[in-house]
Amino acid sequence: EAGVTQSPTHLIKTRGQQATLRCSPISGHTSVYWYQQALGLGLQFLLWYDEGEERNRGNFPPRFSGRQFPNYSSELNVNALELEDSALYLCASSLFRWGNTEAFFGQGTRLTVV
Amino acid sequence: EDKVVQSPLSLVVHEGDTVTLNCSYEVTNFRSLLWYKQEKKAPTFLFMLTSSGIEKKSGRLSSILDKKELSSILNITATQTGDSAIYLCAVNNAGNMLTFGGGTRLMVKP
After folding, report:
1. Do B34 and A103 count as a contact with CB atoms less than 8 A apart?
2. Sequence-distant (≥ 6) Cβ neighbours of residue A8 within 8 angstroms
């Protein structure tokens, strides 16, 4: 069974541009979470999607947005990129919305803003 | 706001040593606590703890939750160089949101 897949693996953008990151959850998982991990820092919660809807978002500006498609895959969009957006972006998926199930992570997208 | 604090921030040991990593939390409507190991990119799942006092074990790794003290420990016995990683603790609240601690960076020297 395929795990969580993210694309692209690496992304280099210039300041002011937009970046789109993609995530495909494990088959059957309906919840997708996005996290930002800047160099040397912990995982900061960005967004949570479940059943196609945004359920929660972390303390990030509105230029961080996303969506979840009917097949439960998800996109994270970052507009007006800033240098400090350079980080590893991790996506995780889980099976049940309200149950005690673990979240599984993808390999991440390394975004570099120059 | 939910909060998860891990200690120590970093740890250097030699192969064969036993280590104990700590995680404390403040969370509204606690549901579960999870431990992950992050070596290069993707954190890999280790344990999920929901009940206080019940130890979960996998090989040389074990973990236990103390709901009264709002904390958990992760033990690694007979450490090996392959255990070198960042260990992440996360708590899941009733809203099913995972809040992560800053991690403990473990280095095991030969």
Report:
1. yes
2. A21, A22, A109
